[in-house]
Each structure stands twice: as C-alpha cells, then as structure tokens.
Design goal:
The structure is a homodimer. By secondary structure, chain A is of the alpha/beta class. Chain A contains 13 helices and twelve strands. In chain A, strands 2-1-3-4-5-11 form a six-stranded parallel beta sheet, with helices on both faces. In chain A, strands 7-6-8-9-10-12 form a six-stranded mixed beta sheet, with helices on both faces. At the A-B interface, helix 4, helix 5, strand 2, helix 6 and helix 11 of A face helix 4, helix 5, strand 2, helix 6 and helix 11 of B. Chain A binds a DNA duplex through helix 2 and helix 4.
Chain lengths: 339, 339
DNA sequence: TTCCTGACTTGGAGCGTTCCAATTCAGGGT
DNA sequence: ACCCTGAATTGGAACGCTCCAAGTCAGGAA
C-alpha cells in the first residue's frame, strides 16, 4: 500500500519547526504560539499525517485504551451492555478493544492479547474464567465484571443486578395474577442462573407455595428452554406459568407451549429474565425481569475510570434493581377446571 | 497498579543472555540453542513477562492486527458475519479490533482510531460511509466490504450475496406455493434493500404478476416491518404473502399479521431475508432467504490476508448464492374466496 | 545599555521491541 | 598449529512518539 506514512518529523520539516513543537501543537498545548499552531495543523493536513498509536502508547507509557471481553455477541444482552461501556469509554476520550470467546481458553488468550496491548482497564461481560484467573488479571490492571458478583477481590469491581431478588419479583408478579402452579426452567450451572433458581425457590416458599416448587433443568438458550418447557407442560397437573432463567430460553419455552397445542398466555404464562430488546419485538412480547443492561455497562466503565484516574482504590460492588416489564406473555390463569 | 512490568531486558538479565537472544527465543527462532531457549522461557515465566504490543508493533513496523467495523451489534446478522471474520483472523495469528457505530460520524472517528493503531487491513460490515470516504481509506490499507457491493475501486474487495437474485428466489418460492398477491415490504434507502426491491419487481414481472406488484415503504427493523405490514394487510384485496426486506422487519410484519387477527401462515405467508439465527428460533420459525453470513465474513478476512501478504493485488468482488430456508411462516394460500 | 522575565521553542534521551551486521567460538579439515 | 565454517550470540541502530531540561529571544525594567 502507501509507502512510508508521514511522521511527526515530516510535519515538523514542512512547517519549519521542531518535532517537539509539532507534538505539543497536535496535543493542543496552550503554550504553542498561534502562528506555529496554524502552520503545523496545515502541514499535518496537507501531508495526511496520522499519529502512530503504538509510538504514542510506548512513549507516553499509556495506551488510553480499555479492553472489553464479552461472552457471546449473538446474545443481544451483551450488545446492550456494550452500548453502555462504549459510550462511557468514548466520553473519556479512550478507545475500546472488544474481544469475544465462548470458550474459556479463547477468552484467556484474547485477554492476554489485550494485556499485551497495555490496556489500562478491563471490562469482563459475563466471562467464564476461574476466580484465580480473574484475580491474577486484576493484579495487572483494574477489572470490572458485569453481571456476575461471585468473584471479588482487590482490583475487581462488580456490577450486577440482584438475581435472587429479580426471581422473587417474577414469582410475586405471577402469584399476584393468581398463579400457583409456577414452574421454573433452570439455566444450567451458570452462577447467575443458580441465583435465579434460588430466588425462585425462596419466593415460592414465602408465598406459601412450597408444595408447588418445580424446577426443570434447562440451559440459557432457545433449545434448552424448549426442551425443559416441553417436559414441564407435559406433566400433570400442568403448570399455569413458567418462570424461565433468561429471555433466550423463554423464547424456546414459548415455542414449546405452542408445539404442545397451548396458547400463551391463555393456557400458560411465560416470564423471562434480562429484559432484552429481543423480547420486546412485537411478535414475541415476552414479559421479563428487566436488568438495566446499558446502565450496568456504563457504570462498569465509569468505575474503571475512577480507578484508572486514581480517584478510588477500594473495589466497588454495585447491585442494581431489576423490574418486571409486563408484555403479552402473561395473564391470569384460566379458571380452574377439574384437572 | 503493578509498577513497571518486566521487559525483555529483565528477562535477559535473569537468563544471563542478551536481549536480542530473548527476542529471538520468544519468537521461536530455530537458531537459538536449546539450553538458552529453556533458560529464557523459564526466566520469562518466573517474571511474568508479557511482550509489549506497542513496542513490537513499532519496531516490527507491523501490528499484526486487522480492524473490523460493524454497523450495529444488536442485529444478529452482524454477529454471524463477525464469527467468520474472527475465526479467519485468529487462524492467521492476527488480532482483531472491533468497533461499532450507527452514525457515520462515529464510524469515521472509529476508523481513524483503527488506522492510528496501524491496522493492516479493514473489514467493513455494512458501513454507512460515502464512497469517497471508503476509497480514501483504501489508499491507506486494504479494505474488504461485506454485504455491500456498490462501492468498488482499487484496494476495495467486496463480499456479498446477490440480493436481486435472492428476491427472485423468494418470489418464485411463493409463486410455487400458489401465491399471486405477493406484496413487498421495502427496507428504506439502504442500497441492499434497494436491490431486494428491484429483484422483487423483476421476479413478479417474470412470473406474469406485473399487475400484482405492490411495494410498501418500510425500514430494516421491527417497527418498520410492523407499520408497513399493517398497511399492506389492511388493503383489499389483501395480499396472501409478504416478502419483507430483512428478517428483523419480517418479525415486525408477523406481529402485524397477528395484531390484524390473521394467522401466519394460514392467512398470510411471510418471507424474510438474511437467514439469521434469530428467525430460526422455535417461537418464530421465519422462512427466509439465507445468506451464508459467517462464510461471507470468513471470505472477507481471507481476501484481506491475500492482499496483506501480497498474494493478490487486484480487487476481488465475490457474490455468494442465497437460498430459501423454509420454516413455518409460509404455506400455500387459503383457497380463494370471493374477496 | 544590561539584565531579567516570560513566552516559545528545541534537542536529546528514552519507551520496549525488532532487525541487522558483526562477533565469538568450537570443531573439522589441512 | 592454522584457517575456515557455521552455529550461536551480541550490541546498537532504528521505529515514531513524549517528556524534560535547557535554549532563544523580544521587550520591559533598571
């Protein structure tokens, strides 16, 4: 391609000043005389000069970049969190390097790359790393974990919603509608899913429905929700409502209901978790426990900057409220029949 | 955080060799004696040495990184394209820097950042840049554009599907089912959407249905599809099938049908475009014209490396086939009534 | 005039690597 | 004993920038 990009030297030569002054002018130092500044900017524009980030990073001993690891870009949850992170990072004039990987091994290698780039902080959105790995990373650079709160330590901020409380909200909402046979479709061994399941159990007991507790093992995706819901809906007495571990799986559960010849919400109500924009699509209309995903991303980044800029030293563990967002997948149960 | 990371000098001192040999050993040069290599690797491990990417990039005059711009991470189309890009880039031992931005101004500033990082190539997934801007970028670094083929020039590869042909497939498939009143929900002024609309018109004429051509202006999202479909379904005679500009909008259209008291596919068939995993969700089951999204991403990256490595100089414009993926949103039209 | 001051400007020393030419050194051939 | 060779290793010069101590220079005070 283009041979030899112009450097700061070329700009200096063209403007008839020293490279140091060019550096100063380009970074907006007020000490530069107006005439010099004008000449330098003109020369830079004429040459199509573009600063070399690697050189700047090396010389300034600062990359002005934060890294972000997201579990899976297919799940819209992560896109929403990312919105918040990116906006906040941009507001601070930093760059973001985004990497992904479902597999922990890939996650580790991607994080290594970020650290080699000398990122000044790391946001982990739903990682699958071992606690020891996260703590090790936190000794090198500030870390903020979004959606999980189970790993803490010096240098590790967390931002999450209270999944247990969210599950309570779901159960209470369904109970309020008149449901009693409320089954839960679990999300596998994910720590977040475990909390939601626990919250479900506690809330059922608190509502005097200990007898009705029913948990079907599923997973956090479409297929898992479909499979578990199929089983749940085939059992007798059939549940009148399903509280599913996340929106993605809830969509599978809704399909399972249709496949079983049931109508949502007339025959069975479905509640998801996350409050993704996906569930808000008109053809889905999923009632869900909504987390403030974008805000969580924003807060994670904000917290990171507080540490990068030395405004805070202690780790911060934020817990944000979740709320029931009612759409069209829930309704009071059909009047009791002789089941 | 951690003060002063160990450098190659520290490793050299610890292993009792010169920094040059450390550099050689770390990069796996066969010229290094086994004993030295072992000592160096051990020293590096003990110190927790991590190479500095900025320094390497500067000294080697190569960042071994490619940049990727995606329009919008919320649309699963892009996640699928990204899968292909990331896999191919990783296979070449390069890193990827992903940036996003719906707004052309943000896209431009993000691309500037990528260029400052000295990326060695750029993949643009559904950008919204002016042709002149893309051509300017292509003078600095190889560019591959995915999903659009309207901007060409030296240094610009394109990978897309034939949207016009895909639209033909959709119409022919619906005609084959027996549909005649097939309306099209357009996707706005996007060049991709324009091709799909054109293909629809041509295919209708080719099928002898010139009289039935009906195009409703919409957009490439849920709301646009919903609005346009509502209008289409309210008109008389009502279309028996809707061919919608993309999957996202098609989901809105399906919802509009339900809202109008119609059932899909009994009363109206819906065909989308893109073949996203979203449409494959069990509760949606959208028939769609599927593009090989991941493969397109992979090919774009592969083409980029062909240019980075100097194996090819001329621009390449790939057009991949699309295919009808039949799911549950289409069926033969209901037997004709006296409409 | 001389000195001082403050506003600008500058050269050079890094930053942590890679790359290259040059050096060392053991062993084999003579 | 001497030269040659090739394998292994090395020092130093970049790479393009930032940062700092030091320099220049006009104009005002003495």
């Amino acid at each position: 391609m283009s041979v030899a990009r112009p450097t700061i030297h070329d700009v200096a030569a063209r403007a008839g000043v020293s490279k140091s002054l060019v550096s100063l002018a380009l970074r907006g130092s007020p000490a530069v005389a107006d005439a010099s500044r004008t000449a330098i900017l003109a020369a830079a524009a004429e040459l199509g000069y573009r600063p070399n980030a690697a050189a700047r990073s090396l010389a300034a001993r600062s990359s002005r970049t934060v890294g972000v690891l997201v579990l899976d870009l297919h799940n819209p949850v992560f896109a929403e969190v990312l919105d918040g992170v990116l906006a906040e990072v941009r507001a601070h004039g930093y760059s973001t390097m985004v990497v992904t990987g479902l597999d922990p091994a890939i996650q580790t290698s991607e994080i290594d790359k970020l650290l080699e780039f000398q990122v000044e902080g790391l946001v982990l959105v739903s990682h699958r790393l071992a606690a020891a790995a996260v703590r090790a990373i936190a000794t090198e650079t500030p870390v903020a974990v979004v959606t999980r709160g189970d790993i803490t330590g010096p240098g590790i901020d967390t931002v999450r919603n209270d999944d247990r409380l969210g599950a309570h909200l779901a159960v209470e909402y369904l109970v309020g509608l008149g449901h009693r046979r409320i089954a839960h479709i679990g999300g596998g061994d994910d720590p977040v899913a475990a909390d939601r399941e626990l919250g479900y159990r506690q809330a059922m007991v608190a509502a005097g429905l200990a007898q009705q507790v029913r948990v079907l093992p599923g997973s956090l995706d479409d297929a898992g929700g479909h499979g578990a819901a199929t089983l749940a809906l085939a059992s007798r007495p059939r549940p009148t409502a399903l509280f599913v571990a996340n929106d993605f799986a809830a969509m599978g559960a809704m399909a399972a209901a249709v496949d079983a010849g049931l109508r949502v919400p007339r025959d069975v109500s479905v509640v998801g978790y996350d409050g993704t924009q996906l569930g808000a699509l008109r053809s889905i209309g999923l009632t869900s426990i909504a987390q403030p995903l974008t805000e969580m991303g924003r807060l994670a980044a904000e917290g990171l900057f507080a540490r990068i800029e030395g405004r805070r030293r202690r780790a911060q563990n934020l817990v944000l409220p979740a709320e029931v967002v009612v759409r069209s997948s829930t309704a009071p149960p059909a009047p009791a029949r002789t089941e």
